[in-house]
């Protein structure tokens, strides 16, 4: 299923969410302007390489703003645009920003741990997927019955259908878990950081309960 929009209007303009999208876009446009050699240096400097995390701990944060392809960044920013505004609306701007960063850190730490255990610790990780997975976890807890307009494949056809967030996000995290398990033997090959998605989602789902109830 491909989300088109959520039927869940925000009460305020999502300043932080928009800033995060623009920041990721700006970094990506910088990457596009680099040649292959320069981009490799840039990714290994600011991307998260598990083997180097103790020498360059700042990459636990900076890797969230780099991406690997047009499809990677468009997909991530599309999900963030659809689901992030409502979460920011409920948490407030400062709490949403902290929530986003902590979710991304949690995602990165789990993926780093898995890389050390299964191999692939020299493969750089980039992307906002982990933090956005945390946003999805928060959205599921805050708006389980919100309607998501999605493009759904039915046999050989695609059709628009409204589905509850519980179903859409529930299927999404199930796919992440299944793919994570299936790719365990091939962890050293790199590719999609499934456990970053799983870790970010878990952190977000738990953390939102604290951030939403606590008043600062």
Automatic annotation (TrEMBL):
UniProt protein name: Rhomboid-like protein
Domain of life per record: Bacteria
GO MF, one annotated term: serine-type endopeptidase activity
PANTHER family attached to this UniProt entry: RHOMBOID PROTEASE GLPG, RHOMBOID-RELATED PROTEIN
SMART domains: DUF1751
GO cellular component: membrane
Gene3D superfamilies: Rhomboid-like (1.20.1540.10)
